[in-house]
Design brief:
The protein folds into two domains: 46 residues; 90 residues, BT4661 domain 1 (Immunoglobulin-like), CATH 2.60.40.2710. 30% of the residues lie in helices and 30% in strands. It contains four helices and nine strands. Keywords: Membrane, Transmembrane, Transmembrane helix.
Length: 161
């Protein structure tokens, strides 16, 4: 046991001295400016460059493109749809930043119980034919000419004709 303590005791003393030295150097040292620790002292002496990105020509175009809003989607009618063929564009309106209509895509169509009714939508001619009256929730994505997108859920009341 004495031989183990003699062999490893020196190692433990060296380890304690090394940890104490690191603690002193990395944490406890302070310079004249009040920076405490080696990393803070070195970091305060590294020159930093503040770049004004506003002077770049690309920044101006990026700023103007980023300021353009995503398309607006609205339910533009005050009346409800009926259990016949309804043209979606008569009820849903979109407007882009430039005032044009945006391209719309129907992502989902559910009844008030959450059942999927997407088969009622005909993507080819843009019509929705409801089989039953009730409240339907349609999820629509509008995309404009600069590829900005907006997704909204709209509740559509449907009445029997």
């Amino acid at each position: 046991m004495k031989e183990i303590i003699r062999q490893y005791g020196g190692f433990f003393v060296e380890a304690i001295v090394l940890v104490s030295l690191c603690f002193f150097l990395f944490i406890n040292i302070t310079d004249n400016n009040g920076n405490k620790g080696v990393f803070a002292i070195i970091g305060s002496n590294i020159p930093t460059v503040n770049v004004d990105y506003g002077t770049y020509s690309d920044f101006t175009s990026f700023k103007s493109e980023a300021a353009k809003t995503a398309p607006d989607i609205e339910y533009k009618r005050t009346d409800q749809m009926y259990t016949i063929s309804n043209l979606l564009s008569d009820y849903i309106g979109t407007t882009t930043y430039s005032g044009n209509a945006a391209h719309i895509k129907v992502l989902s169509l559910n009844d008030e119980n959450g059942n999927d009714c997407l088969e009622a939508y005909n993507e080819t001619d843009g019509t929705i034919t409801f089989s039953n009256p009730g409240i339907y929730i349609i999820r629509i994505k509008a995309t404009d000419d600069i590829n900005k997108k907006r997704i909204v859920d709209i509740e559509i009341p449907v009445e029997r004709i």
